[in-house]
Amino acid sequence: MIPTLLPTYARAPMSFVKGEGSWLIEADGRRFLDLGAGIAVNALGHANPLLVKALTDQAEKLWHTSNLYQIPQQQALAEKLVDLTFADTVFFTNSGTEACELAVKMARKYWYEKGHPEKTDIIAFTGSFHGRSSAGIAAAGSEKMTKGFGPLLPGFIHLPFGDHDALTAAMTDTVGAILIEPVQGEGGILPVPDQCLKGLRDLCDEKGILLIFDEVQCGVARTGKLFAHEWSGVSPDIMMVAKGIGGGFPIGAVLATEEAASGMTLGTHGSTYGGNPLGCAVGCAVIDHVSDPAFLAEVNRKSGRLRQKLEGLVAAHPDVFESVRGAGLMLGLKCKATNTDIVKAGYDNLILTVPAGDNVIRLLPALNITDADMDEAVTRLDATATAFTKS
Fold first, then answer.
1. How confident is the model at residue 388 (pLDDT cuts 50, 70, 90)?
2. Entry pTM
3. Cβ-count burial of 7 within 10 angstroms (0-12 exposed, 13-18 middle, 19+ buried)?
4. Which DSSP string do the residues of 47-69 spell out, in sequence order?
């Protein structure tokens, strides 16, 4: 008999009833150190007082009206994002998946309105993840994501990650955009080198096509800049955002230049819940906090400190771990043992990590994790690796 919850997740045998900062408390009272942060969502930890206040203050006033009317909180968050980024305009969604859908629509509508309806192809890369919608799985293209869900949305060209020759060869007259994560998340915490992002920007400018960045996982201060692409000094035409922007409340966004968004006119897109007062009130509080240069400096300091300790962990357990990679507090441990087995072994040591592709475990802690909690995390990872080796 099918469960009451559709069985699409192999859920771990824990039920958390409370969160405090970087800690989750199980129904039986056990305290788990959370290095997953809801898959890079809880950017400021669990039950952060700043976000609790923003949410409850708004909840006492107004929850939802729909986009048939002006939403002051939405306008305020859009203005903050435009002031802080390359973008001229913002559309709010409920998730990263929905942001992908709009980014694809926006790119194709742009070329249609420019009189080039043939330029529908979007180049994407192996190992990518762009959500679970029809457009998202078609963009990723992997068998794991697409098997059984055909016919797939056409118009995506999949190239090997890092293959510059293949990219050059793929630049036909039907290509309208390139879509890439500045740091692959699900694919195994793989940063795109700065020079490659610069090269993509130059190529798009040369060919006159759009550059789309998926910063759903790597954005919102996760890498020590407000958005990961800022390290390279280049900007996209369209950017997808979600996860950390709501600090745990479901909200996403598409940011775009005026030119790239020019095809999205009255009635071309919509969302009933997108940009609701609750989500945008929390989003404003998150952005105000994480965009502070002092906060970003702390993310970078913590990243260096944690990475150094993880390098020592790898050296101490060469049969379990191979290397550390990533950027900011978006780090990955490349494993020699099976990554999912190590994640499960961590449960016995009350530590939560997240598996990823390429046999990597993701470490995506709250951006305000304390030094003491980082030290405790490495201690628990060390105990996990030791127990795993003995088992």
1. confident
2. 0.97
3. exposed
4. T-HHHHHHHHHHHTT-----TTS
